[in-house]
Amino acid sequence: MPGRIGGRNIDMKTIDIKKDFKPCAQTYGPVLAALGKENPDIFVVEADLMKASGTRPFMEAYPDRHINVGVAEQNLVGLAAGLAAMDRIPFACTMANFISQRACDQVTISVAFNKFNVKLVGCYAGLSQEKNGATHISIMDIAIMRCLPNMKVVVPSDHAELADVLEFAVKDTGPLYIRMPRVLPEKLFDDSYKFNLNRGFQVKDGIDITLISNGISSSVAVNAIGELKKEGIDAGLIHLPVVKPADESIILAAAAKTGALITIEDHSIYGGLGGLVSEITSKNRSAIVARIGLEDKFGLTANLDFQLDYFGISVENILKVAKEVLNKKQD
Amino acid sequence: MEDKITELQNIAKNLRINTFKAITNAGGGHYGGSLSAIEIIAVLYFDIMRTDPANPCDDRRDRLVLSKGHAGPVLYTALAMRGYFPLSDLKDLDKPLSNFPKHVDRLKLKGIDASTGALGQGLSIACGMAISLKQQKKDNFVYVVMGDGELNSGQVWEAAMTASKYGLDNIIAIVDRNELQIDGATDDIMPLEPLKDKWASFGWAVFKADGHDVRSLHSAITESKKVTGKPAIIIAKTVKGCGISFMEGKWQWHSGAIDENQFRQCLAELGDET
Predict the structure, then answer these.
(1) Which domain does B70 fall in, by range?
(2) CA-nearest residue of chain A to B160?
(3) Do B125 and A78 touch (CB under 8 A)?
(4) Which is it for strands A42-46 and A201-204: parallel, antiparallel or unpaired?
(5) Chain A residues inside the 8 Å CB shell of B121
(6) What is the number of structural domains in chain B?
(7) Shared fold status for A4-16+193-330 and A21-185
(8) Residue ranges in chain B whose pLDDT is less than 50
(9) I want to staple A301 with a disulfide (CB 3.0 to 4.6 A). Which of A133, B41, B163, B177 is the partner?
(10) How far from A49 is each of A29, A54, A88, A217, B131, CA to CA, in Å?
């Protein structure tokens, strides 16, 4: 019986990186405005990137809970910490590279060390910065955030999941980082999937190998499943939106079952999803792990589809890597 | 009022002695910047701020962000003298796993409103607190004590612009202007003057005070609280290591340790009668 993704036969399912992707601002802005209506403690904090995050509707509806500090990311994060100190619920958003790099010490001390209830949102994350290039493409935000004590790290893959994560964020307490690309598909998975902080999602079972992905890469992984099948490879797929606290059991179960894992991420393969899965499987050396992503490279000035291909986050490269891994597994 | 001033002078004297003892008991530490901030903290905690040691998390309290987190020993000692916890607890200063780490940690001790230590971050936190209070139309004040060395940091000026933009007249910042930082005189390392003009040009009401004169501090803070529509800052002229002759005005005493003979000399100079 074929696995099913998005309610359809996997052979039918393909995501068009260009046509099926919509700006995340179309969800982030309206969902926060709706949440802000219900909860008078929600604040939006911006650093001159309302255009990217889409929070103008929130500003218009709740001007006294919408703060814009200008191009000042360190102050953005510190101010959000101060709001959280007063038991408010701030969503502080700027580009993923700036929130994790420029404001790293403020995220570390003012938020994580203080254990303040700040929602940090890294927008235009990863390769979705496209032609803005290396200065703007975050390749280490997940690695940085993962290292911080008290910090949770979530990497949604479609608009429906992003909305779930925002709703979750309001109820959750403590520092949380949400990695939000510029664009995502509206709905990658069917209604049986619901975001859960403590559980990865087994999209499809497989015998030969397991793909593990999140963010934009989950779209590519979904596309790869059918192509792998055509090549006679029965691949499983795990969508792992929560990098921390990670669902170790789903990784270890996949490692035990297939003995071969491929991580796929638009991030450095050091310290992100690939790092995480390697760390987990090293506990019992239970699987060969291949990591697809950026290896010691900065992003490029190029469209998303070009960059994904260039860095091997593509169906073709997944096929190639899968065959290599299967060969190793047989050795 | 005169009685109050005399009382504050006595409190400051004891705060200085107790802070000095706590640091020395810990094997040394940030004498310089702790001793320069004594009167500032004394006036805040024993005169100006709305706080309740019996209910340290009371929502109605004024907040303090000790942005110069290395002056933790002064704040700990002031809290102890106000009755938040016994003075004898200060023996744990800097001890592993104690509630009194070198830099203040809000998760360890009720009465600390923000964990600090990485310089330059406090004013931003204060802005967030003040915005929240204003949005809820509450009348609490947010006090921020900053070192002058940390004014080198760009984040301070990002926050200064923000406090001005949002008219945060519920923020009172106090600069412990001891004119020294770790590597030398602030004038040599990174000149700050004209400091009053800098803050004024950022839209702040600026006051000056003698940071070791409780009357001067009381008066400056009282005036600052009357300012409306803009944040206020008090540049409090202080002496690093104030009260101990061989430390006063010496950048070398930003932090350090002393021996037994020096300890006895210091206690005599501070007027310790115990």
Answers:
(1) 2-270
(2) A75
(3) yes
(4) unpaired
(5) 74, 78, 105-106, 109-110
(6) 1
(7) yes
(8) none
(9) A133
(10) 12, 8, 22, 25, 20
- pLDDT for res A8: 44
Beta carbons within 8 Å of A191's beta carbon, 6+ residues apart: A7
A106 to B106: CB separation less than 8 angstroms, yes or no: no
Domain boundaries, chain A: 4-16+193-330, 21-185
Using CA atoms, how far residue B143 sits from B7, B54, B126, in Å, is: 22, 20, 8
DSSP, res B195: H
Residue B273 amino acid letter: E
Contact between A28 and A246 (Cβ < 8 Å) = no
In sequence order, the 6+-apart residues with CB closer than 8 A to the CB of A95 are: A49, A52, A122, A123, A124, A125, A129, A136, A138
In this structure, the dihedral spanned by the alpha carbons of residues A219, A225, A230 and A231, taken in order and rounded to 10 degrees, is 110
Classify the C-alpha dihedral A139-A143-A149-A154 as positive or negative.
positive
Which CATH number fits the domain A4-16+193-330, given the four candidates 3.30.420.40, 3.40.50.920, 3.90.660.10, 2.140.10.30? 3.40.50.920
Residue whose structure tokens are 């803009």: B230
Instruction: Map residue A212 onto helix, strand or coil.
Output: strand
Closest approach of A149 to chain B, Cα-based (Å): 14
- In CATH terms, the fold of domain A21-185 is Rossmann fold (3.40.50)
pTM: predicted TM-score of the whole model, two decimal places = 0.96
The pLDDT score that the predictor gives to residue A17 is 86
Residue type, B44: L
CA B139 to chain centre: 22
- Per-state percent for chain A, helix, strand, coil, to nearest 5: 45, 20, 35
pLDDT for the residue A192 = 86
- Looking at residue A146, its amino acid is R
H or E stretch at A178: strand A176-179
Matching residue, tokens 């500090």: A69
Cβ(B152)–Cβ(B198) below 8 Å: no
CA distance A116 to chain B (A): 9
CATH number for position B139 = 3.40.50.970
Q: A86 contacts in B (CB within 8 Å)?
A: 128-129, 132-133
What pLDDT is stored for residue A11 in this prediction?
52
Tokens matching residue A280 = 């987990």
Q: Which of A46, A75, A111, A150 to mutate to test the interface with B (most CBs of B within 10 A)?
A: A75
**Cβ of A119 under 8 Å from any chain B Cβ?**
no
DSSP states along A253-312 = HHHHHHSEEEEEEEEETTTSHHHHHHHHHHTTT-SEEEEEEESS----SS-HHHHHHHTT
d(CA A4, CA A11): 9
How far is B58 from B40, CA to CA, in rounded Å?
A: 23
- C-alpha torsion sign, points A91, A94, A96, A98: negative
End-to-end CA distance of chain B: 28
Within a 10 A sphere around the Cβ of A68, how many other Cβ atoms? 17
What parts of chain A have a pLDDT lower than 70?
A: 1-13
Asked if A142 and A272 count as a contact pair (C-beta separation under 8 A), the reply is yes
